[in-house]
Each structure stands twice: as structure tokens, then as C-alpha cells.
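REVIEWER CHECKLIST
Item 1: Sequence provided? yes
Item 2: Single chain? yes
Item 3: Sequence as submitted:
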Amino acid sequence: MCVYLAIVKLVVQVKLLPSPEQASVLEATLRACNEAATWASSMAFETNVKSNFALREHTYRQIKVRCGLGAQAAQHVIKKTCDTYAALKANLKAGNLGRPGSQRYRRAMDKPVAFRPQGAQPYDDRMLSWQIDQRRISIWTTAGRMKGVAYTAAPEQSATLALYREGESDLLQRDGMWFLHATCDVPEVPSNTDPVDFLGIDLGIVNIATTSDGEIMAGRQLNRTRSRDRELRTKLQRRPSGRGCRWCTSIRRTPRAPAPSAATSTGRTGYPKRGSHAGTAGSLITQTGMAPATSGPAPGSCGDAGPSQRPLPHYRANGTGLDASSAPQPVMLVVQARRRSDG
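Item 4: Structure as written out by the authors:
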């Protein structure tokens, strides 16, 4: 009997903690790699050679001499350039850059691709090694091999790196900080074939997800942004002006996360244990399989009875994989209650 184990590719981000001298060397390395990529892009545009191995014949030796890159770094620069043109071709074919002949389409076609000086640069195992137990890396730079660069990561991220890291990692600079994006091949967890009960999940625009037991998943950053916008809107509405009114109108048109209800914030229902429930996206089946309690949110709401919350959609048997006529009795109670409220 053959068992096929699915693999999920995850990207783990770790933050580097280089010294000022190490940071200057990393910045010079990124700048040299992206300058080489920009030059290789111009050569690919002039010669109309945009495949990996064919472009190496025109640019490999020149990149090593002009920019002082090593063999692996030069190959990664050429491959990055070819991948960029492949992505550009796919976007043009899909119509993401306008119709053929439009100004945006011609602007993308009539000049070579240019790379930002702080653009990400891929590294393989020959150019980058990890000492996960010491939280140090050894990385190739234009000034030679630089060892002992510290990094920080959460314990679960370090465990994922130690067990499942595979393939390339990307070095990038963002807002003055240095990061490494490492690719990890994580085995997929087998599906639960014997669930205890069901958990309904409503996927929306205002909220990322809302469970049938009242848990709103919007994210800490989104909740902070919503709170800040609400405070600014209150201040601007007290002293109205043209710019303030336009800002308030744009905020009202932008989907924001609503405030969690009192029942959710006080922990009226516990979050289900992982692996013991089966869930369906967009379903209206509660965790326990019973009809919603009278003290909970009103029918037609999604964990919050406030006016900013959009109503739940009608019950869709095709979307959940269940049929209202063949569903178990507790589920029938939920279906009938929602149908009465919708009617």
C-alpha cells in the first residue's frame, strides 16, 4: 500500500541583527547584486535572450568581472532576471498591464526591467549556512564570507527551520531592517476523518473569518488600525473641513474590522480544540450543533449585532456539502432558525 504525503511550502521570516559594519557590507552586497541584475536585464532586452542558460552565455563572465560577484551569486542574478521577464510576460498575457497598445502596456514593453538597489537576493546552501542552535548564520558577501551574523526568531519558527528548511532563502532590507525569508517543506497534517462535531466559518471582507461560536479573526494590526481610524474620525467630525470630510468618506468606504462583541470579548464560548472539530468555510453550522442561544448574537448577525456588521448569507447546502433534508436533527434546528430569520 502506497501512502502519499502532501508537502506544504511555508516561508519563515527571521530578523537579522547585524552590527553596523556587517549591515554596511550586506547593503553593499545587495546593491552590487541588483546592479548586476539591472545590467543583465538590459542585455536580455537588447539581445532578446530571456532564458536562463542562453543568457548565461552573454552575461556570466561579464557579471563576475564587472560586479565582483562569485559564481553562485552570478548564476542567481541571471536566474532572477529571467524569472522577472517570465513574470512580466505572464502579466502581459493575462491583461494585468492593460490592453495591447495601451500606454501602460507599451511602457512595460519598451524598456528593460530595472531592479531596486534594496531588492531581495536569493541565496542557496552554498552561499548561506545556518547555526540554528546558536542563532547565527554564515553568509556570502562581496567582501568575503561573513560569519557570526546573529538573528532572532520565535521558538516555533526556529523549530520549523531546524526540521523542514529546504531550498533557497532570500535576503532583503525593509525599513532599515534586515530579514531572511527561508523556504520550508512542511508535511501536511492528515485530515481528521472522525470529528467530534462541526465548526462553521464565515469568510468575509470586513473580517477575515468569523466562527459560529462568535470568534472574530481580524488580526491585531487590523484592529489597531480600526481603533486609530475611529478616533481620528471622531476628532475630524467635531471640526469639519473639506479635507477631513473627504478622509472620513474614504475611511467609510474602506472595509474595516468591526469591534468584537461583548460576548466574544468576555469569552462566552471557548475556542475549539485543534483536531477535534470539522469545519466548512461559509457554513452556518454551530460548534455544538444546537441552535444559537437567546443571549448570543441576534439571528442574521455574525458574532456582532452592531450596524457595521454585514448579515450572514443564506444557508447554502452546496457550499457546505450538506443537504438540509438529510442533515442531522441538531443541524436542522440551525437551518430552520436561520431560514425563519431570513424570511
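Item 5: Key structural point noted by reviewer: Residues 258-274, 281-343 have pLDDT under 50 and may be disordered.
Item 6: Recommendation: ____
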